[in-house]
Amino acid sequence: MSFAQASLMPSFTRPPSHVAIVRCDSYERDLGALLFEALRQFDLPVGGKKVLLKPNFIEPDPNCVINTHPAVVGAVREAFLRLGAQSVRVAEGPGHERDTEAIVETIRLRDFLSPLLDLFVDLNLDEVRPVNLRTRASKLKQLYLPRTVLEADYIVSLPKLKTHHWVGATLSLKNMFGIVPGCCYGWPKNVLHWVGVTPAVLDINSTVRPDFAIVDGIIGMEGNGPIQGSPKPSGVLILGDDPVAVDATCARVMGLVPERIDYLAKAGALLGHLNPGKIRQLGESVASVRTPFAVLPAFHKLVAANGK
Amino acid sequence: MPNPEPLEFLLTNQNSDGGWGYHRASPSAVEPTAWALSALISSRRAPPPVEVCARARDWLLQAQLTDGSWPPFPGQPQGCWVTSIASEALHLLGGAQNAVERGLEWLLKEWPAEGNVWWRLRQTLIPSRVLRQNSSLRGWNWTPGTASWVEPTAYALLFLRSLPSEMLSPQAAKRRSLAERMLYDRMCPGGGWNNGNPLVYGVAGVPRFGPTAWALLALRDHPERAEIQMSLEWLKGAYSAIQGAASLALAHRCLAAYGHPVSPLASALGELYSHNRFFENVLTNSWIILAVNEEGNGAARSAGEAATR
After folding, report:
1. What ipTM, to 2 d.p.?
2. Closest chain A residue to B78 measured between Cα atoms?
3. Of B70, B80, B85, B142, which to mutate for an interface test with A (greatest number of A Cβ within 10 Å)?
4. Are B210 and A117 inside 8 Å of each other by CB?
5. Nearest residue to A154 via CA among A214, A210, A207
6. Residues of A with Cβ-Cβ distance to B277 under 8 angstroms
7. What phi, psi does A196 have (nearest 5°)?
8. Looking at the domain assignment, is residue A74 inside a domain?
9. Which tens digits make up the pLDDT trace of B115-145?
10. How far apart are CA A260 and CA A182, in angstroms?
11. pLDDT digits (tens, 9 = 90+) for A208-234
């Protein structure tokens, strides 16, 4: 079970992580085949497992600039089923919008996931259980978390490649805010902001660490993300078995220094690898796909010199 | 109406303990139980089913905490925004006056955290360069220890609005006035509301249907104000883009409450229902009933006005 297996270990004792960068310039491509081939490189232990995909759905967005593209969600589901997963469900608890149905209808998720009623779970309204957090980065100590998340065998964080106006960038770790249920904490889940975004990201991911991460960077978002930024065609899917390493790689692709993104720098101590020397790169190199993202002035300090 | 009708959906999906879950066959929770009860009480299609309502009332009474508040789920130790909704439902039903008064008392004591001494000191020393809002104007929060937001503030105002004036202390009137001012302060520059951040980094926030509808319903005693008119215009203009049944029901209820003509809700819901059965969501079905009822109120108001002309 993913929840029980969440692993905390100092980076120097953690084995190297694996991250693959796959070029893909359009949602019209055969994403199912592309992702299946990419995932096969990882020899994932998902046979017979209940897999849960956690995309980033924020609000109704017909052009799918804000949300993980439903074509990617559908393709990832197809790929995990081909890898032998017993079931693959999709679950999200949007942070601002109470009407989750409006989001999934606007992005036409049902065209890629059918029957929607059986395959999609609104985490904001799920049954909850109290969970003691495994770390004390924040003063939260405990959160009510959705049963669907706690009972999943294997969790895949499936965010979009975006800048974020509070923390610099939102990727697979920040995406896990969406498992915190609105029915207990509201819209937005303001308690997470009051204890601090960085400590909250760390506590949530130390307790329910995604087993795998796949970032939709085919078209990302730059500038005033995660909602009001501009589309940024980046032409990549970035995936790996360590969410910290995946996020660090994403940041480098975006022209940002991951060690300067507060929550990511701290996650590098216990949750995964930031150090490129500990990340086995598969597929394309970071340098070959680097696409510097514009950031708000408050985050210019995150930008790598010369975009490298 | 969609098939099955929302009223039928609620009646057939009450849990054996008397409450409703957020979805069919899920454990009872305070918010869906309160909305389902309010919807059943207000339904024009049938008299409120006495036995069903009584069981819901008893479930809510058992879930109330000793401090007068309600938590999201029974057994949780801390009350929150659902107190407004549960209190209003019980007030509408009647027969639970003490519980309603205790709920009201808790709400009036519960202040959002942005106005505390430390917050004000920090704001004075380090003014926010990100948000532009008057934090001295406070409403209600989602959960204790956090800031005011549009929707929980609107829920609390709607509860206060439902009470007879003799139940409202001067303190209640003061909170109500402050919360109304907070809502106006948090309106998006072009009208309408999002969760409560109208301007971030100098960029105007984009309104959302739910918060806009709730804020307008809570402020319906001031239809003449420019902010209300601007927000109604936004809602009317954006109405046709709504693709969720819950948002549609809220927008419909809101426009009907302000006497704006809207096409019958049922026609817009049929296609959505065929796609997703509204995710068998109790809130959505309850809000549809409340919207249809408001539609009826609008028709009755129009008939009454015509008769008196």
Report:
1. 0.94
2. A184
3. B142
4. no
5. A210
6. 117
7. 105, 130
8. yes
9. 777 777 776 776 666 566 788 899 999 999 9
10. 30
11. 999 999 999 999 999 999 999 999 999
